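Predict the holo structure. Ligand: flavin-adenine dinucleotide.
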Amino acid sequence: MTQVIGKPIKRKEDPKLITGHGQFTDDIKLPGMLFATMKRSRYAHAKIKRIHTAEALKLPGVMAVYTGKDVQDKIKPIRSIWLVPGCNLIPKDRIPLAVDKVNYAGEAVAMVVAESRYIAYDALELIDVEYEELPVVVDQEAALAEAAPVIYDDVPKNIAFTWKAGDVPEEVFINAEVVVKQRLVEQRVIANPMETRGAVASYNPGSGDLTIWCTTQNPHIHRITYADALGIPETKLRIIAPDMGGGFGAKIAVYTEEALVGLAAMQLKQPVKWVEGRQEHFLATSHARDQVITTELAGTKDGKILAIRAKNIANLGAYLSTMGAGVPTIDFGLMVTGAYDIPYAQAETIGVYTNTTPTDAYRGAGKPEASFQIERMINIFADKIGMDPVEVRKKNLVAKVPYTNAMGCNYDSGDYHGTLAKALEAIDYVGLKKEQEEARKNGRLLGIGISTYVELCGLGPSKVAGAIGFGGGLWENSSIRVHPSGKVTIFTGASPHGQGEGTTFAQVVADKFGIPLEDIEFVSGDTLIISMGWGTYGSRTTPVAGGALSIAADRIVEKAKIIAAHELGVPLEDVEFAKGIFSIKEQPDQQRTFKEIAWSANNAWNLPDGMEPALEGQSFFDPPDFVYPFGAHICVVEVDPDTGMVELKRYVCVDDVGRIINPMIAEGQVHGGLAQGIGQALWEQSVYSDKGQLLSGTFMDYAMPKARFFPMIESSFIESPSPVNPLGAKGIGETGTTAAPSVIVNAVIDALAPYGVKDLPMPLTPEKVWKAIHERSDGQ
Amino acid sequence: MIPTSFDYVRAASVPEAIQLLKNFNGEGKLIAGGHSLVPLMKFRITTPGTLIDISQIQELKGVSKEGGRLVIGALTTYAEALGDPLVAAHLPVLAEAIQKIADLQVRNKGTIGGNIAHADPAADLPALALALDAVVHITGEDGEERVPIQDFLFGPFMTALPETSIVTAVSFAIPPTEGKSTYLKYFHPASGYAVVGVAAVARKTADGVINHIRVGITGAGDCAFRAENVEKYLLGKTATLENISKAAQLAADEVDMGEDLFASSDYRRHLCEVYTERALRKVLL
Ligand SMILES: Cc1cc2nc3c(=O)[nH]c(=O)nc-3n(C[C@H](O)[C@H](O)[C@H](O)COP(=O)(O)OP(=O)(O)OC[C@H]3O[C@@H](n4cnc5c(N)ncnc54)[C@H](O)[C@@H]3O)c2cc1C
């Protein structure tokens, strides 16, 4: 067996998916299954006066209609899992169906259950809800104003929390040679996985067992929450995450519809399915980012950064979503210094309720926001002191790791300067600057953008989770079962949903046991089969669940070796294991294969005294610390001055994500992350009217990035193993969304330098860019 | 994303389709490729009682040459038109435009007649139809009719098509020999439809005097329109950069521009000018 770790193995999960044999939530069909639809509020803020359901109930095929009053004593509010301490947090839980008042457009007010999906949709139109409109506030800054409408009587000024970390003595700013300050807006975006959310619930009235198949990145967190909400024992609820068409953070959150479907199945004693429509998804699944960040940077004239101070006003939407409080505080605040050695740092966040869809994690969650502000500030600082932004980066980049940043985060491995040097060489920075100079002489607007980002991933040590108010552990569970035939099944508590761990985990185990990849199966996403686990997000699956996997595999090898020594009649020390063969030192003809030992362990005819039969290994791995992927990204754009269109000409990225198990999958993660990050920089934006109507609520208006928008990505890796997990992996899923927005914005602002443009808010749509050029040209 | 319930019938011929339209008395709706109609039904913007499927009427498929015109059967799909040798020989600009419509799946189903009959203000073909002096062939209760495209397109999703009539074909004038034609499109980043699409057809004499010019613009306003002021300005003038640039300034003259989240009316007006100038340069220089 040759080593497979590090090889670009084709994904084991793909043949099933690309031949249409995947099983997604909507593919699940059970006998007697009913369909649920949700009546959603037209208004962003209104009192519910009456709900008329009689007409809907009369429609043949309608089995039940539930309103908020019907379910309020049957399903508890869905609690947020991350109650950040020390910030006077007032959590407002999502309620299953609104009772007295709706707080955002799209909030569910009633559920229909009918014999077919068509009837269930038709019935929605027969439900009449009488509302009394209330004043609406959608913008978080406006929500803080004295005269702003207040959404909750017990939340003055709509402030859900005020959080602070770090402290910069005022003198640092007073005495600094240079201070720059900029207001930067992380616009609201909407994760649009190809598969929207959905759930199928099935109840056995005899046993009281409830099974819910649903689109979740973390089935065990869903189980804990829904069991509590429905008032049933955790042991009576099984959550299954079948195949999933992406999540991007939006399927971490625990929503209400899945619990409602569970309740309906229990009450009607028939299976019930609900599948979110795309327009419904735009309204009902969590939105993201929507943070207004004002950062001040103090530095010296020759480019040394002394301090950074960021103020973030975060729009939480109408309710506190699952990780809603953690994303703009801990996830953001701890990383505001980026990859730079900055002695003083301070981050403050105000969380604000508004009449909008709740916000939550979105690929990167907090780290992209932190990275965006520091990377933009570096360029703004460089511009102010007249220095090349690359030089400012070189001057401030962390010189040596391990390094502890001003907030206490321990950057784990790698060479920050070397990585930047490699990226500069890959794009020929010196040549590029010359080319840009020439282009400018000819009136062409060429721009170069750069980011040397770092992110905090691999969540994480459970002690830290407890300290930061995360309502659970962050360890992970992997187990390996060696069957009598020598075939192997991997079980993990992480819940990959497109990332490819079915392949990469098999690669790890194939190398550990010296067996072919075909012999290894992968199971995840079922709370009945997997005892416990915390799910897939925060680039944690490979570092944490992969760590557990590696330890579990070692445990199996250890036991197998003892059996081999016993069978071969030699002391344990004399047995060597390599490439699937147990052999005796200096006696290579005496050997046992992994397969043979698997059979021996399982038949138990001749095991060492006291040894238990079977060959299974399990590990619950709690990492000692987080991991810190970092890298240098550089791009070239050209702006068409006539239309303002931005053409992305080149994108070079060098990422140090620790050990790479499958370079093809790694590259795929980079490409996807970049598309999403560049999408935020150039096209994506969720827009509300003043009345709280979502104007960008379909794909006709919300611009998802398309393949044709991108050049070939020039991606390469440096592998500096992380010391905090056995695989040395650092996580790769979120590098693109963390790095790309600032790379692109820095490039476009650089392109517009001849017009004196200093900053523009994302997304940099052609009209915005054209106007910036147009206004400046008129003024000249 | 689920339409209301509806009935479905398939018409085998044009007279049968017309009879069915009559029978259903305004409640029937023709379906051709379904790629504009079905999305509207799923949004429940349109809720027809009965769909009358005309997609299998073979006599409404195919391309023929009649004098200086190509007549394209209403049910010819984009993909069929794209692969047609007459289109390749006489209307390469139609092929150029079709390649800019949506994606392969849509082009395999969507029809030329459906595109024109639907009169989507952001669709591509209306611009081309205007620049190629298209004529819409209509059959109704009272027989056949031929309506010039400018009289056919009324406003957003509005046409001169009587309720019980059907578009049987669209004919396009073959551009003059030695002339040039082009279709330039500014794609909406979300929908892929035209924010602005400019079709231009032109010919000059040996000494550079413009003796034929048509400019059709789609996407920008409520309805595709002919940029007649541009045409008037250029006709009889020599094709110089300066003349082109001056003419292009008139592209959206006297026309109300639309507006959406992506592009304001000011920006659309500006884009009309920029894309007209670019199209004119391509066909005149
Ligand atoms: C994802 C997507 C992207 C698209 N992008 C573009 C684009 O970039 N540019 C573009 O131009 N279009 C685009 N379209 C629209 C597409 O081109 C449609 O197929 C076309 O506009 C309508 O043709 P159809 O045959 O599908 O008509 P249908 O959807 O069947 O019908 C549309 C309307 O026309 C009527 N109708 C159809 N045929 C006739 C007839 N012969 N006589 C009378 N009435 C008739 C119908 O009753 C209906 O009201 C897109 C569509 C989709 C789904």
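Residues 476-621 of chain A form a domain with the Aldehyde Oxidoreductase; domain 4 fold (CATH 3.30.365.10). The first helix of chain A runs from residue 14 to 18.
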